[in-house]
Amino acid sequence: MKLIITRDYEEMSRRAADIVISHMVQKPDMVLGLATGSTPEGLYQKLIEAYRGGTIDFSNVRTFNLDEYYGIDEDNDQSYHYFMKEKLLDHVNIPMENTHILDGMAEDVHAECMDYERRIDEAGGIDLQILGIGKNGHIGFNEPGDVFIRRTHLVDLDQETIQANSRFFTCKEEVPTQALTMGIETIMKARKIILIASGEGKAEAIYRAVKCEIHPMVPASILHVHPDVTVIVDEEAASKL
Ligand code: GLP
Prior knowledge:
With 241 residues, the chain is of the alpha/beta class. The protein has helices at residues 9-26, 41-52, 80-87, 109-122, 159-165, 184-188, 203-211, and strands spanning 2-6, 31-34, 62-65, 67-69, 99-100, 128-131, 153-156, 178-181, 192-197, 229-234.
């Protein structure tokens, strides 16, 4: 696990964007794993700037998102479909058929999850996966638990996660309590992983992910056994290391 501590959010975003950009230049048809949340917004902005400046071209890139809320339509402005379009996909030249996000309205959830795994495999696997981290150490929506759940699945969200997500919704009743997420093995199969985190609120999660032993109660701790993980955190998120 390689650790990069940056001065601030801006530098964290730039360092992460530099890695994605150099990968995309070397492999224009790369398979990119995307994350949602506030943390990658700066990184996505930098990718948009690099695209506008002619450094990168998304026409052959394929993307797979980590997760999506369950029971939320993709046109809902709180869906991760909506977020990805607004923050990245609508601003670059990626063909929409190259973008993949789990269907939160799928009637047959099991089939949707299996099909997602199949689509990732058919694309040749994920070359580079971007990850954020939840305050409870989750990656994607893999919540702390007794075991690591390997494949893409439906998950009941933790109270802490529901609480953290509630800031985006107008009332408590609207906050989704379930989500579809790539599993731990789905994430770990990515050839390269970048985990980004910013701010004091993530310091405990980063401490537990980086310093503690591997345990499903800290889902991000599994990253220790991945051969190519770069953790990029600003000074505040690194403050407990
Ligand atoms: C959600 C997403 C995660 C993300 C986390 C942190 O739970 N499913 O993928 O890492 O939020 O979000 P933020 O970056 O807003 O702190």
